[in-house]
Amino acid sequence: MKMLSLPEKNKRLKRLFHPESVAFIGASNKRGKWGSIILANLINGGFTGAIYPINPSEAQIQGLGAYKRIADVPDIPDLVVIVVPPQAVPAVIGECVAKGIQVGVVITAGFAEVGTEGERLQRKMAKQAHAGGMLLVGPNCNGIMSPPEKLHVAMPPIYFPPGPMAVVAQSGNVATSIARRAMKRGFGISRFVSSGNEADLHCEDYYTYLSEDLDTRVILSYIEGFRDGRRFFAAAKEVTRKKPIIMLKAGATRIGAKAAKSHTAAMAGSDLAFEGVCSQAGVIRAGNMDDLTNIAAGFVGQPLPAGRRVGIVTAGGGWGVLAADACAEAGLEVPALSKETIQELDEFLPAWWSRNNPVDLVAGLKPDHLEKSLECLLRCLTIDGILLLGIMPALPLDPLPPSAGPEAVEERCQVLLETIGEVFDKFMGLAHHYQKPVIIASELPFSVENLESRMALMLGQRGYVCYPSPEDAAIVMASLAVYAEYIRS
Amino acid sequence: MKMLSLPEKNKRLKRLFHPESVAFIGASNKRGKWGSIILANLINGGFTGAIYPINPSEAQIQGLGAYKRIADVPDIPDLVVIVVPPQAVPAVIGECVAKGIQVGVVITAGFAEVGTEGERLQRKMAKQAHAGGMLLVGPNCNGIMSPPEKLHVAMPPIYFPPGPMAVVAQSGNVATSIARRAMKRGFGISRFVSSGNEADLHCEDYYTYLSEDLDTRVILSYIEGFRDGRRFFAAAKEVTRKKPIIMLKAGATRIGAKAAKSHTAAMAGSDLAFEGVCSQAGVIRAGNMDDLTNIAAGFVGQPLPAGRRVGIVTAGGGWGVLAADACAEAGLEVPALSKETIQELDEFLPAWWSRNNPVDLVAGLKPDHLEKSLECLLRCLTIDGILLLGIMPALPLDPLPPSAGPEAVEERCQVLLETIGEVFDKFMGLAHHYQKPVIIASELPFSVENLESRMALMLGQRGYVCYPSPEDAAIVMASLAVYAEYIRS
């Protein structure tokens, strides 16, 4: 690994995510085996390059002509996928190096995570790859994906749409959970890496590559521990100057750290030390998988705030109180409104409005109050960003009679979704005009199965999110503010 | 209020939730007015009793014969709903008392939450009601619902199905948000109260009534502050012996407390003091609206654990690590496994399994490993409850080919949902057999729009939840353990 220069390494990583051909060692016809499931996923994912299944005893695998050994393939594949028993892996790597293959994904488990014998085997495998200048993803991982290339070399049969988020995780199932959360919010994936035991490539290698990757706008990462803390820190510090890294770190507690050790042989280290590394390297920390995705979406769609002073506009008082609490807990300020702003709001809000931040529209039903209040706060010089809670006042509110048939319901849903799209376009246009983030959290005026997920997809495709709770919105705002401070520092 | 005995008060509260007739003062034909929207909701909700709209200038309101004044109604309505401007409310209450009405819901805002003048008006209104022995919900609230009675006197046009959860909240929009979250998980609502400024009835009055209400199994509450701390404490302490109260408290921070004051005139008080009240009264605290609903669902479907020792079975290592962290943070223990349990697991798990708690099935694909591991841990004497993470190994996993048409996809979804139902029945049967909670968190093996919400509804109707993340599962387990300790103490 150390023998390769950075440009050389990145060239190979480019091959990993943009291969023209893939060899698959351990390809199988047997239903239920990973060598069958992952190959099926690669084929079904629509990869358009050549696929070479390798199997010593079958002539055809899943309809493709198979080869007995990698040496027999009439081409040098750009990428090799390895799904053979652990004891066989070092020899297979040797064959791949001999063939001239430059990068491989080792799915196989049973290495450093299972103890001393596995560690020995893992070192042997890595040594063999290093000697031949071959890069390795894994072992003990669930694969990689590159949705813009329709490359799907991974366990879960889920085909993420292409989009701005890269996922790098030291756990395949967490990587999948994160990408699913992004997909449900209508955001696609640029690259997906389950880095496993990181015998060769570490998460920081992927970060560095992704910092120059044009398809990636934000990096979402889950880690259980560093392999090399100093190297991680140096790489992350460079990358965050170019793109945000949002990080979920496991093993923060003694019990969690023990679980991490037996999962991917990771040494979790002290959580306090990790917190220090993050804040000095500009890495944004998330508390869980939902926050991670929510924050990343904020970075895709929002301008960065100039400070931590938040204005809250709410269509319902309770959400305003919860948001105020959440802002305080996230280290944001909720300053009093200036006299001028109060005067401006007095001109159109009802006499009994709160005259406070949060600006409570008090179950107001005038559609334009929301937009006018938003603009008042955006113009206010002592406010850096807005939490807008409840877009109902701007939506058609007439209740659906219970007698409404499915067609009438669908028609109403269409109108509602269209209006929501227009409202978001308008409000996010204001956000970008004033260069202040406008984080919107809301529910819908009526409850129809599917409507929320349809709204999420529609908005996500435009780069927006309608967050489900006031706390989510506050957490996103705080993350934008922390990153903006780091970038300015 | 103090004049009424408890049985007398509860008799009137029963009338509130089970009225045979409802008068509606401020009923309107004008679209967009609350007097029109709420009346439409009451009619559309399917209420089968008599509805008497009161309006001084219209003969018909929304198709119903209207009365000029409450005095003209040819009956003594069980319940009155009041949606007239604040200045008019005290006089209207006087008329209701004269008519002999015993309970009313005041929707109107513009009382104590807007300052001294409003406070005066609120006191005047309450005095008038007290003098006549009439109970009041509100003012400044979004209404009440009693879904088993098809009684829907509230702003949001959402008809919650009847079910085991009662919602009592000092915010109408938070009450609605909580009930929506319950509904999305397939759980219905027994009673819904937006208690508003609590000029007369306080949240503790509702708790006391609900503790004897046969339709209610668990009370979900949002509060911004007590009106009378000692009275709240005494009532809550009695109620929690009979039913759990799960509580979200706002105004925990200085900023939030300020927002609460201008929302419902509530004095939030110190969060530390509130924490003390909760732990001494057996009230379970939730961190946000999602946790609140998740925890309440746990109380509906799970047996209580005998202690805090958690066994974790996970189909994916990363979720196991996140769960271990979350358990530690929630005050749970994740003890090492006994020799006997390890031996039992050794008999069927692959040689490289973690031999630790969490029990990591390491991407195992054998369908029965999950159930067998679960039973091993349930039998273990040093474990009080189980987190089961990932039910995929027990489900049909074959990927759907991308060419599959909508019928094939639907057929696959049906099979999957049926299998999930069977798996939950089996696992929850084990939970009740061993009298240890089994909290399940999982994603689905493939991603089809709607599948998750369909699964949630199907499971919720059986009293089960498939939690979306390992942290959720840990929080639910911790809440069950804390309540169980309180009940045993």
UniProtKB/TrEMBL annotation, chains A, B:
Domain CoA-binding as annotated: residue spans: 16-111
Presence of keyword ATP-binding: yes
Keyword annotations from UniProtKB, A to Z: ATP-binding, Ligase, Nucleotide-binding
Signal peptide: none
InterPro entries: Acyl-CoA_Synth/Transferase, CoA-bd, Ligase_CoA_dom, NAD(P)-bd_dom_sf, Succ_CoA_lig_flav_dom, Succinyl-CoA_synth-like
Highest taxon of the lineage: Bacteria
Keyword Cell inner membrane: no
Pfam annotation, one family: CoA_binding_2
Molecular function GO terms recorded: acetate-CoA ligase (ADP-forming) activity; ATP binding
PANTHER family, alphabetized: 3-HYDROXYPROPIONATE--COA LIGASE [ADP-FORMING] (PTHR43334:SF1), ACETATE--COA LIGASE [ADP-FORMING] (PTHR43334)
Protein name: CoA-binding protein
Classification lineage: Bacteria, Deltaproteobacteria, Candidatus Desulfacyla
